[in-house]
Every structure is written in C-alpha cells, then in structure tokens.
Design goal:
The protein has 416 residues and is of the alpha/beta class. The protein folds into 2 domains: 4-32 and 280-410, Beta Barrel (Lyase, Ornithine Decarboxylase, Chain A, domain 1); 34-276, Alanine racemase (TIM Barrel), CATH 3.20.20.10. It has helices spanning 18-25, 34-47, 65-73, 83-91, 108-117, 127-139, 175-187, 208-226, 252-266, 276-279, 312-316, 406-410; strands spanning 4-7, 10-13, 16-17, 29-33, 53-58, 77-80, 99-101, 121-124, 144-151, 173-174, 191-197, 233-235, 269-272, 283-294, 299-303, 322-324, 334-340, 349-357, 364-367, 388-393, 396-401. The protein binds pyridoxal-5'-phosphate.
Length: 416
C-alpha cells in the first residue's frame, strides 16, 4: 500500500501531514517514507529467500545518505557507478563486501579507491577495461574480483533511453564475444573471475525479457565451467518497474518465480541491483502553486518546482501523477492544464495536458512516484537552490538534506 494516503482530507506521508511539513521545511521538497523503503527491500528478501542472495541497492536512483543508511541497516548492499557513490555507500555504512561497482567508464583512480575499500566485485563492461583493471590491481599487488557485464541482446520493451541490453547499446560485452573475453580475463594475473552480470534496462513491466536474459547468462556460465572458469555469482541487474500511472509491473514474487529455476540450477549466489523499485514509489516532490495562467489557447498552473528539481517529464516524457494535498480540492471540476515551473525553457514542465481538479495559488501539490531519479538528477539551472529532502518515519521526520542556500550555490566560484 502507498505510504501516501489522505487522512482528515490532508495528504500524509505515513502519519505526517504534508501541509504541516511544507509549512516548516518549505517547498519544493522531496519527501520519502522510511516504511516504504523497507517494505520494498523486504519484498526482494522474501522473494529470493531460498537462494543465497544479496540485494545491492542501485545508489544512483536515490543516493541520499539518509536513504542509504536506512537500507544499509536493513541489510542492503550497494550497486555503485562512480567513486562518489562508493564514498556515499561507505559513509552510509554499507559493508564493502556488499558493494558492486558497475558502469561503462571507470577511471583508474576509481578502480584504486574501490580496490582499497575491498569491495565485493567489479562489473567490467569491456575488454579494454579488463586490461586496465588488471594493471591497476597488479600495481597494488592484489587481485580484483570481477564479473563481466554481458549484453544478452534482448528487448526489454521499455523506453529507449533506459533500455541497455540491446546490441546497439553502449553497455556490456556483446553476448557472442563474452566467452572469449572470459578466457582472456582468466589469464590475467590481477583479476579473479567470480561472476557474470547483466542489466537489460529500467522500468521493466514484464519479467519475461529478464528471464530470457538470465537463461542466456546461465548458458554462458555452464559453458565457462566446462573450461574450468568457475562463476560463483550471477548479478541479474535491476530494472523492475513501478506504477507511475496504470502500469502493472510484476510483483517481487512473480519476478522471482520466473527467474529462480534457472538461477537455482546454476547453483550461484544471486546478486540484485534494484533502484527504482526500492525508492520510486516511496517519495513525492511537494510543490506549491504560484499562479494560474490562461493564454486563451492553453491553461497553465505555475508551481515552484521545476525541471531542475524533477527532470524526468522533460527528459523522458515521463508521467507522474499529480494530486492536491488538500483533498477537498479533488471534488472540484477537472480542467486540462500544463503544470509548469519557473525555469526559462519551454521544456520546463511537470505535466502536459493533464486533467487536474481546479487548484488555486498557495495550494500544495504532490508529484507522485518521485523517489527515484528525482533529486539525484536535480541541477542548479537558473541558479535555483536544490530542494530539501525529508525522510518520514511514522509521525516523525528528519531533514536528510537541507535546502541549498545561495551561499552553497556560489561556493567554489571566484572572480579572476
Ligand atoms: C541504473 C542501474 C540499475 C538500477 O536500475 P533500476 O531501474 O533503477 O532498478 C542497476 N544496475 C545498473 C548497472 C544500472 O545502471
């Protein structure tokens, strides 16, 4: 169940009124539910409980230290894609042996940092990267634990920007080259080959493409075993979708049921890298209506949140449900509006041609399902301070990142 429900006609996050919260922390504000984070993490735990597994939360979906530490305390590992994310994961208390380093462009410095931290595994995305990692590890006199990210070439049937498992994608090693790449990796003294990895895309609403990809990876693992290359771990990536509008993504259980037979048979430790499905529906962007505007051709609701706060609608054309915090507004007539921010770009919108109950200046709106790829993609465009982030736990809340100040915005800049 969503942690965002109306109580006494006010939208609440768990037991905290968003109206009362906005009065204290201001808007725009990201608000996350701790219970919801833990519930989705536990969903994976239940679904995969009968195989050895680690849920390595994909830090890029929402990298706030408060969010990370809640997940780390509950036993999650981390899937990182940069040295910065390594720093965050360690700061939040994620055990290094539960950290996986993914990404197509790791630098030597980042490799050294991760080797020094003694992480679980590097997901290597090219043969060139294999050779560099080998060099870096040898320089340090250690061996780097690696998996190869294999591109299984299946169509995940999602948005082109978030599909990563197709032949034309920049990610992973093409399936037909993977065997040879593994053979090379096995000869490199600075590497210890321990795993196989895949991640076919994001916001997947069907589990079958993942199952097809897992089958291909398992077949590869079996072939490698015949060559005495022992793969102990299969990382099946992240990507499970969430409901933004009317999508019906598989449940954790349905997802697991489809994938588990092949994984169990392979006798491996299963690694998962979910991001969106852990945090997406656990968060909203809270914004206040500034103005109503009617140009004759179109009606606009101008709000104080903008594309710099939440870029997904502008970047991917994504749909986010928008609801009034004051439930009595919902009884009003619907009108078709664009919900837009103050930024000087026509592409600055949170919703286009949306049927919304009539709202007034000063009303609060909640942009739903904004917990993933929301704040992390925020920028300071138009010199707008980034929003405050709040983590709610029952009837209490913590400001897990304060709103930026103008001083923050110019810190590090100097006139010549
Ligand atoms: C982004 C990403 C994830 C997380 O994807 P979600 O759709 O948020 O679950 C997992 N693994 C890798 C390698 C990624 O790049």
């Amino acid at each position: 169940m969503s942690p965002f429900q109306y109580r006494d006609s006010e939208l609440c996050c768990e037991e905290v009124s968003l109206r009362a919260l906005a009065a204290v922390v201001g808007t725009p504000a990201y608000v996350y539910s701790k219970a919801s984070l833990l519930e989705s993490l536990a969903g994976y735990g239940r679904a995969f409980h009968d195989v050895p597994h680690v849920v390595c939360y994909s830090v890029k979906a929402n990298s706030n230290l408060g969010v990370l530490s809640v997940l780390a305390k509950a036993g999650a590992g981390a899937d990182i894609v940069s040295g910065g994310e390594l720093y965050r994961a360690l700061r939040a208390g994620v055990p290094p042996k539960k950290i996986i380093f993914s990404g197509v462009g790791k630098s030597r410095d980042e490799m050294r940092e991760a080797l020094k931290a003694d992480i679980l595994m590097f997901n290597v995305e090219s043969r060139a990267e294999l050779r560099v990692l080998d060099e870096v590890a040898l320089e340090m006199g250690i061996r780097a634990p690696v998996a190869l990210r294999v591109n299984p070439d299946v169509d995940p049937q999602t948005h082109p920007y978030i599909a990563t498992g197709l032949k034309t994608s920049k990610f992973g090693i093409p399936y037909h080259e993977a065997f040879e790449a593994y053979e090379e990796a096995a000869t490199l003294k600075g590497l210890e080959v321990i795993g196989a990895d895949m991640h076919i895309g994001s916001q997947l609403t069907k589990a079958t493409p993942v199952a097809d990809a897992v089958a291909r990876v398992v077949a590869l693992v079996k072939a490698l075993r015949e060559r005495r290359i022992e793969i102990r771990m299969i990382d099946i990536g992240g990507g499970l979708g969430i409901r933004y509008r009317d999508e019906k993504p598989p449940t954790h259980q349905e997802f697991a049921t489809l994938l588990l037979p092949a994984l169990r048979e392979a006798g491996v430790t299963v690694l998962l890298e979910p991001g969106r499905s852990i945090v997406g529906n656990a968060g909203v962007l809270l914004t206040r209506v500034l103005y109503r505007k009617d140009t004759g051709a179109k009606k606009f609701v101008v709000v104080d949140g903008a594309m710099n706060d939440l870029i997904r609608p502008s970047l991917y054309g994504s749909y986010h449900e928008i609801v009034p915090v004051d439930q009595t507004r919902c009884a009003r007539d619907l009108e078709t509006v664009d919900v837009v921010g103050p930024i000087c770009e026509s592409g600055d919108f949170l919703a286009k041609d949306r049927e919304l109950a009539q709202v007034e200046p000063e009303d609060l709106l909640a942009v739903m399902s904004a917990g993933a790829y929301g704040f992390v993609m925020a920028s300071n465009y138009n010199t707008r301070p980034r929003a405050v982030e709040v983590l709610v736990d029952g009837n209490r809340y913590t400001i897990v990142r304060r709103r930026e100040t103008y001083e923050d915005l110019v810190a590090g800049e100097t006139a010549p």
